[in-house]
Amino acid sequence: MNTLFKVTNKISANGQAVRHIFSGVKKLQQTQEQVDAAEATNTRLPLTTLSEDEQAMKETVARLAQEQIAPHVREMDNDGKFKSSIIDLLFQNGLMGVQIDTEYGGAGCNFMTTILTVEEISKVDPSLGILVDLQNTLINNVVIQLGNEEQKKKYLPRLAADTVSSFALTEPSSGSDAFSLKTTAKKDGSDYIINGSKMWISNSDLAGIFLVMANANPSAGYKGITCFIVERDTPGFTINRPEKKLGIAASGTCMLTFDNVRVPESNILGEFGKGYKYAIEFLNEGRIGIGAQMIGLAQGCFDATIPYTMERAQFGKPIFSFQSMQHQIAEVATEIEAARLMVYNAARLLERGEPVLKEGAMAKWYAADVAQRACVKCIDWMGGVGFSKDFIQEKFYRDVKIGSIYEGTYNIQLSTIAKQIEREYKN
Ligand SMILES: Cc1cc2nc3c(=O)[nH]c(=O)nc-3n(C[C@H](O)[C@H](O)[C@H](O)COP(=O)(O)OP(=O)(O)OC[C@H]3O[C@@H](n4cnc5c(N)ncnc54)[C@H](O)[C@@H]3O)c2cc1C
Fold first, then answer.
1. Which CATH number is 3-164's, of 3.10.180.10, 3.40.640.10, 1.10.287.130, 1.10.540.10?
2. Where does the record place the Acyl-CoA dehydrogenase/oxidase C-terminal domain (predicted)?
3. Does the beta carbon of 412 sit less than 6 angstroms from any atom of ligand 1?
4. What CATH superfamily is the domain 167-275?
5. Fewest CB atoms within 10 A around its CB: which of 45, 131, 386, 411?
6. Of the listed 231, 351, 407, 422, which one is catalytic?
7. pLDDT digits 0-9 by tens, 372-419
8. Stretch 93-120: mean pLDDT
9. What is the enclosing helix (H) or strand (E) of 192?
10. What is the pTM for the complete model shown?
11. Dihedral angle at the C-alpha atoms of 76, 78, 80, 84, nearest 10 degrees?
């Protein structure tokens, strides 16, 4: 699939720049060149500096989101499901395989490009933002980094071209305490037989490929947890009806049940018994993606609100002109910018191979907190109409709550940050 030219042809008015959008290797080099040049002259680039390709991608995804996704967002939220034409649009434009190498049909871009993609999509629809985020930051990256050549050849082209995927860790009795999970995988000849259930699994209504954490050696405790690839049509595997939720309604979140689900040993991803380690590592990356979803959501809500405050007049003046309004607006704009810098910094650290345990948790926690405040304020600034379903702010307000729950709750992020601080100060 030549995603580069598909994007160029479909949505770019800026042909020259966009032609490089998906040349990921080149983009990485370009970013490195910029960094090297900055280091050579002893200057530092602002965190918001994007390479030419990253900038072009950001603009292109923004245009796609505004022109082709935005008109369908209300309908998808009301229906509680995505339109298949919108899912097709994401695949056709390379947004579901941003970091998958071109050799496997992906766009071959860097992590920052994934972050920008999730941010731009979430400005318009945070439900679709989580679909794009999970596919890219969790599932694709796990297969890219842990898959053997056979697994990469089998799964990456599908993930880039047409197959939605899910990451299944949480269970009815294990959420924050994820590694007390009870789903088992018992060896039977050269197969494993999976039994148990998973809860709250995003995008599982559509997914064709599932990464499932199951304990293949319960006597070893969490060190028996192993990551299995399970295909949707495997006998004994049931995807239950989507939960009815407060927000991100179009993203299908289902319970999964495994009743003697047989998978070959070759479906183990990475090493036997290392599933807990992989979950920790990849969720560190994933949290930066949730941060991107949250800053996109906050900015989308803010952008939809400010023009109203300039048009709406009370006491003979636009409500924007009141100093108490301006101060609140300035505070929210500053907080969104601060959250964006934390998310971008965590993404750049990750690209440079540096640890992001603390920075990812901080970025996710802060971005979710800022986004919640931003949505509350936007509704306040709109007055009565902010409370109405005729305006998009109420949807952002419902969608934002999930940021403090999935991929680690508020408390879990804060505990992670505190643990790191303790380590740093004890050393
Ligand atoms: C819409 C949605 C989509 C999701 N998508 C996925 C998915 O795709 N894949 C997946 O595997 N999971 C997914 N999840 C699950 C999600 O990651 C969990 O809900 C989350 O980790 C919290 O677990 P829990 O719901 O069991 O809450 P609990 O762990 O029961 O927590 C309840 C409360 O107790 C607090 N708490 C728990 N332990 C501690 C502690 N040690 N210290 C302080 N406070 C604590 C929590 O902070 C929280 O406030 C999703 C959840 C939702 C709602």
1. 1.10.540.10
2. 273-421
3. yes
4. Butyryl-CoA Dehydrogenase, subunit A, domain 2 (2.40.110.10)
5. 411
6. 407
7. 999 999 999 999 999 999 999 999 999 999 999 999 999 999 999 999
8. 97
9. strand 191-202
10. 0.92
11. -20
